[in-house]
Amino acid sequence: MSDLREALLRDLPDIRLLTAPAELEHYGRDWTRRWNPAPLAIALPADTSEVQQLVRWAARHQVCVVPSGGRTGLSGGAVAAHGELVISLDRMRQVLAFDAAARLLTVQPGLPLQAVHEAAAGHGLIYPVDFAARGSCSIGGNIATNAGGIRVIRYGNTREWVAGLKVVTAKGELLDLNRGLVKNSSGYDLRHLMIGSEGTLGIVVEATLRLTDPPPPSQVMLLALPDMAALMQVFELFQHRLPLQAFEFFTDVALRHVLAHGASRALDGDYPYYAVCEFDAATEAAEEVALQAFEKAMEQGWLLDGVLAQSEAQAAALWRLREGITESLAPYQPYKNDVSVRISAVPAFLADMQDLLGREYPHIEVVWFGHIGDGNLHINVLRPADMAAEDFIGQCERVTKLLAATLQRHGGSISAEHGIGLVKRDYLGSTRSAAEIALMQGIRRAFDPDGLLNPGKLF
């Protein structure tokens, strides 16, 4: 390690490098906090050329590389625990170009998602992918995990909004993929291989993003429900009658943590389940349709209470009840499952999942919430204060194997939007067949025959 570090500093004197212990720890991990970071060094390139220099140096010395964005990942995808060179893209956060005719925004990978939103707004448009970590996550990391978020029901995942990518390969070559074209039937679309590949096929150094028109004015409702069956009934009713932008749910346990973290209560009384619903409401007539849907759900006994936001500030306060959950749970360092099934399979899967979690975690608090409109559920298991971390992880991994088997029966995925990383690689077989995994491994070898890019992740 010492000799390699000296060689790195000697061979690449013009590239900013960090080697102090605190810096190695900071850049060598993500939000999982389960592995002790031990990178060789942290490189902060300023442009694509410097990324290429770093990758070529790593290839010559057979040093593994971990690409690093905002490090807000929850699957260990940005962990460097075995002497890897971390290539942090923190300094590559510029908006490079805007194409008004094509509605394309070209950015560097380190640009935070919030800054992408602001750049799009400056042109009267939106980049519609959105989630609570918008201020700290980077667009490169979003692409690496095909991030989804709270508006997938309307706009889909990151994949739908990437028109082109520039990627540095394991050999230091620069690929210019699709170049923002709308039509391009010229063989394999390597751009889509890169999206969701978690830095195992190449390092994104530039992204061309599609933008779209802002949605019409919207309204936000907070709904209180008696059970999951009612939640699904309300979702189907609202989806049929309203142009939904988002439909998110959480439990009373999740609400308790968010309120303790500083959010404001919006409804009197306590209820088992809640949903935040946002829908187009450009006219009074549209709002009246929403109120009629609400009354219908109340008559059916599917709703117990609810509130319609009367201002932007109140709408933001209602959204905080959902978006603040992850932050409120962070001090517990929860074990997280991020799963998905087809929307039609949600009721049956939820019944099996609730039985499983109740049986396997009788004395452990489980907080769950999710994007019910796209079949994505987040399960957070909180470690009891008197349980050793090693014992807790062991128990959670045993239960995750059972959960993976349940997902397999329902045709679901062990990772909806967080990626596989280190945390979920042992459960990949519950989502992908042996033939699929073999082909994926073959693709990885074709792009990175020496296995230097983000080693240990995915497989």
UniProtKB/TrEMBL annotation:
Show which residues constitute the signal peptide: none
What InterPro entries is this protein classified in? FAD-bd_oxidored_4_C, FAD-bd_PCMH, FAD-bd_PCMH-like_sf, FAD-bd_PCMH_sub2, FAD-linked_Oxase-like_C, FAD-oxidored/transferase_4, Oxid_FAD_bind_N, Vanillyl_alc_oxidase_C-sub2
UniProt key word Nucleotide-binding: no
| Residue ranges constituting the FAD-binding PCMH-type domain according to the UniProt record | 35-214
Q: Which keywords annotate this record?
A: FAD, Flavoprotein, Oxidoreductase
Gene3D superfamilies xrefs: 3.30.465.10, 3.30.70.2190, 3.30.70.2740, Vanillyl-alcohol Oxidase, Chain A, domain 4
SUPFAM superfamilies per UniProt: FAD-binding/transporter-associated domain-like (SSF56176), FAD-linked oxidases, C-terminal domain (SSF55103)
Q: Which GO terms describe its molecular function?
A: FAD binding; oxidoreductase activity
Q: Which cofactors are reported in the record for this sequence?
A: FAD
Q: Name one GO biological process term.
A: respiratory electron transport chain
Q: What family is it from?
A: Belongs to the FAD-binding oxidoreductase/transferase type 4 family.
Q: What is this protein called?
A: FAD/FMN-dependent dehydrogenase
What phylogenetic lineage does the species belong to?
Bacteria, Pseudomonadati, Pseudomonadota, Gammaproteobacteria, Lysobacterales
